[in-house]
Amino acid sequence: MPGRHCPGQWAEAMAPIPVVLLTGFLGSGKTTLLNHWLGERQDLALIINELGDIGIDQHLTQGADVPVTLMAGGCLCCVIQGSLSSTLRNLYMARQGGDVPAFSTVVIETTGAADPFNVLAVLEQDPWLKKRFVWQSVITVVDAVTGSEALARHPEVLEQVTAADQLVISKSDRISAQALADFQQRLQGLNAGAPQTVAEHGRAPASLLDRAFPRRCRVTGMFSPVAAPPALATSAVAAPSRHDLYSASLRWPGQLSWALWQAALAQLASECGETLVRVKGLLKVDALDGPLLVQWVGGETPALSPLTLWPDADTDSRLVLITRHPDPAYPQQMLAHWQTLLTLLAQTPP
Ligand SMILES: Nc1nc2c(ncn2[C@@H]2O[C@H](COP(=O)(O)OP(=O)(O)OP(=O)(O)O)[C@@H](O)[C@H]2O)c(=O)[nH]1
């Protein structure tokens, strides 16, 4: 019967549930890694936090039969920090009531902009949650291709690296052995205590989830660029983070040709220039039955992969754009401009 336990199971059911924080900058490879782990582990519950107000990542983990909660529309380390407590409570109650499988570990995938210490604080400050959950580790994914530049450009990357109990270096398959060794040394200098695991093609052992680490405190004084007051702009579309990272989302009901989408993406890249940090989405293309998945990490060439099926009945194209720009309205302006361009392109005879 759901919710009933024999004595041995009871003690197990009452033991605090380990929580792993999976963090790493935008596009570093968190969801890819998570998907690989889901192929091996069915005892997880996932909380996925997205900066944009349209969630894409939860669709990319839908093959797995585990509880998935999406927290979209802002970063849970600042803008929607309060909702993490209620999400964890609901998850615990659902598990106790037998409404979801009796997961043994919760994995929180943060947005790429999150400050891990601010997320950890949620659990540490809530006595009810503290009895029922225990922090296991902070796993930070660092992109071996863009990592060095990202460390220089994005203060969040330094925060995430220094907060890590374990570091996973993604995309090692795309750089030389020497470049990888240099990068590993750089990371060692920034966080000597964190063991490093090198992931190839988005794969790292799922056993990383089971390694427990003592809780560490933030080292103060290192993060002055981050200490600025939160930019709580009240734009209807932009999800403000602690910094000047803003997102906007676009929905598009009609279908277009692949060539038109490509032309429009190229236009978006040239207009946004260096401010473009991340684009991801599902696009409706006339020649395809399923959506075209757009994975675009700023500064790189967009990866466009056809998927066989739409994740659900919603077959609108949707795209999330994340930029680093002082104006919170900027990504929305970009997308509005882009939508006009798409409309014009769609009306132009080939
Ligand atoms: N070659 C290679 N590509 C990778 C690897 N890990 C991730 N990628 C690619 O990197 C892109 C971004 O990966 P995601 O897993 O979506 O990154 P993310 O950190 O979840 O992104 P956000 O949710 O936007 O923060 C995708 O195109 C992945 O296929 C890897 O180890 N090797």
UniProtKB/TrEMBL annotation:
Residues 245-339 form the CobW C-terminal domain. GO terms for molecular function: hydrolase activity; nucleotide binding. Gene3D superfamilies: CobW-like, C-terminal domain, P-loop containing nucleotide triphosphate hydrolases. InterPro entries: CobW-likC_sf, CobW-like_C, CobW/HypB/UreG_nucleotide-bd, P-loop_NTPase, Zinc-reg_GTPase_activator. It catalyses: GTP + H2O = GDP + phosphate + H(+). CDD domains: CobW-like (cd03112). Keywords: Chaperone, Hydrolase, Nucleotide-binding. It comes from the Bacteria. Pfam families: cobW, CobW_C. One of its GO terms (cellular component) is cytoplasm. SMART domains: CobW_C (SM00833). Zinc chaperone that directly transfers zinc cofactor to target proteins, thereby activating them. Zinc is transferred from the CXCC motif in the GTPase domain to the zinc binding site in target proteins in a process requiring GTP hydrolysis. Belongs to the SIMIBI class G3E GTPase family. ZNG1 subfamily. This is Cobalamin synthesis protein/P47K family protein.
